[in-house]
Amino acid sequence: MRKPLLYILLGLASLATVVPLLYMVSLSLQTEAETLSADAVLVPDSPQWGNYAELFTRAPFGNFIVNSLVVAGAITLAHLLFDPLVGYVFAKFRFPLRNTLFVALLATLMVPFFVRMIPLYVLMATMGWLDTYQGLITPFLMDAFGIFLMRQFIQPIPDDLISAARIDGASELRIYRSVILPQTRPALAVLGLFTFVFQWNEFLWPLVATTTPEMRTIPVGLTLFNQEYFTLWHLTAAGSVILFVPTAVLFVFTQRYFVRGIALTGIK
Transmembrane region positions (predicted)? Predict the structure, then answer.
């Protein structure tokens, strides 16, 4: 009796999660009259695929998408490059004040971004990097959460593997590349997905650090578009679908690593 009840509850929870997404897709295919109708239209009589093309004619959404891909992609690659390396150092190397430095690093997670935003803005303005890619990317090249995640995943790897590689004459970089990284692929997939999704949806810093439409990312561009065309809900919904699709595709390609990561965590 418990299993059917559990399945029903999970089904209802899944339905509550999926229905708003499906309605957003439906809304993006409706006419303006259908979106403003007193009765909600769940399935449009004639899907308006041209809404997506119209969206690009009313605002430079092509620039918005490219900017978001460049910024989110560059930051994700930087995290995948630097976070595992620093996590490996904290997990497997012994040096003075290691634990103190690690605690100090974790303490930065408790500092709200609003506190750091003004110094960051002043620094970027002083360097002349406002309204540029480097101004959007540089402040987020590393992340304390990513370092913590990779350190926790690398720490259980047996030290004997590293010692054996050193006896065989492998350099520290070779050990990191050939011994450590292959065993951390599930964690790297999780880190990459979390980083890309967060940066793809990031709103506050791109809003503050950009002033021209040519440099705005899609969350900022979509919000400003909605403020200008606040009655065109079908076009706003179309922009929301475009905002959602890349992260959904990325999750489809990385979901198997989540299962593998859970299995490895259970073994360790």
Answer: 61-82, 102-124, 136-154, 175-198, 232-253
